[in-house]
């Protein structure tokens, strides 16, 4: 049963589920991007983030701002991993963090600029890709591209994260909706108490839609339509 509580979205790749997700589907067609490493080599974003923050002092004043940044980075990674892969880089969360502007790298490398949707317009475009994956049945959605192509790999990734069969599709949609809602006019993102208030508002919207019988899979699609920028006449 869906509630307003959300577990970490990156349990999609829990060790006991990864092998099944990587197996071939009906007709021997693979159901995962060809660029994902094997289960022996893959670390989930949750694992990478825990490793990165393991030495941070366990105080709220230190952890809270880092948690805000981490949630935004993880949402960006969900939208950006296929673009890293398309440029020949391992689309792991640790690689994303190493290359991402304004984190650990003094000179961000090229895949970060490709994977990192810097402006709100590009975030919305990629969120729209995720929303389409969420409202279509996985089989027909994957069938819309030739297996093994960049487009198919992108769809396989998005279906695994946002599709109707994804274990944490709802919470992943919430991550992306929060990322959109947290963008400040003129650049940057809200943090701290304001960010918490925004996340609570998004969670309440999600729960209200469930309460009136709306499908959880359509939340991100609905949110994008509700927040579509108004066109002004010239």
Q: If you compute it from the alpha carbons, what radius of gyration comes out, rounded to the nearest whole angstrom?
A: 18 Å
Q: Based on helices, strands and strand pairing, what is the structural class?
A: mainly alpha
Helix content: 55-70%
Strand content: under 5%
Q: Treating each run of at least 4 consecutive H or I residues as one helix, how many helices?
A: 11
Would you count the extended β strands for me?
Answer: 0
Query: Multimeric state of these chains?
Result: single chain
Largest sheet: none
Query: How far apart are the termini?
Result: 48 Å
- Which stretches are poorly predicted, pLDDT < 50 over at least 5 residues? 1-29, 103-108
> Kindly state the mean pLDDT as a whole number?
76
Order of helices and strands: HHHHHHHHHHH
Global shape: globular
How many structural domains can be distinguished in the coordinates?
1
Structure characterization notes:
With 234 residues, the chain is mainly α. The chain has one domain (25-226). Helix content is 56%, strand content 0%. It has 11 helices and no strands. It has helices at 15-22, 45-52, 60-86, 93-99, 110-115, 120-135, 138-143, 150-162, 169-181, 192-211, 219-226. The longest helix has 27 residues, at 60-86. The radius of gyration is 18 Å and the shape is globular. The relative contact order is 0.13. Residues 1-29 and 103-108 have low confidence and may be disordered.
Summary, kept brief:
The protein is an all-alpha fold. It is 56% helix and 0% strand.
């Amino acid at each position: 049963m869906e509630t307003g509580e959300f577990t970490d979205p990156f349990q999609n790749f829990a060790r006991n589920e990864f092998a099944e997700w990587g197996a071939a589907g009906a007709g021997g067609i693979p159901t995962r991007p060809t660029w994902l490493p094997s289960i022996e080599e893959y670390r989930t974003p949750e694992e990478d983030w825990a490793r990165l923050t393991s030495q941070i002092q366990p105080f709220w004043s230190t952890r809270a701002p880092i948690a805000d940044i981490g949630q935004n980075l993880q949402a960006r990674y969900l939208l950006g991993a296929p673009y890293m892969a398309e440029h020949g880089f391992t689309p792991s969360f640790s690689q994303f963090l190493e290359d991402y502007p304004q984190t650990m790298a003094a000179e961000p490398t090229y895949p970060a600029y490709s994977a990192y949707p810097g402006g709100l317009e590009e975030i919305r475009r990629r969120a729209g890709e995720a929303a389409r994956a969420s409202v279509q049945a996985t089989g027909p959605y994957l069938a819309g591209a030739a297996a093994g192509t960049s487009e198919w790999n992108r769809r396989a990734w998005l279906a695994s994260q946002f599709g109707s069969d994804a274990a944490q599709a709802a919470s992943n949609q919430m991550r992306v909706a929060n990322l959109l809602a947290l963008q400040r006019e003129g650049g940057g993102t809200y943090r701290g108490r304001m960010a918490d208030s925004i996340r609570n508002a998004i969670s309440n919207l999600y729960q209200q839609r469930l309460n009136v019988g709306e499908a959880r899979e359509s939340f991100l699609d609905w949110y994008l339509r509700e927040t579509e920028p108004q066109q002004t006449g010239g």
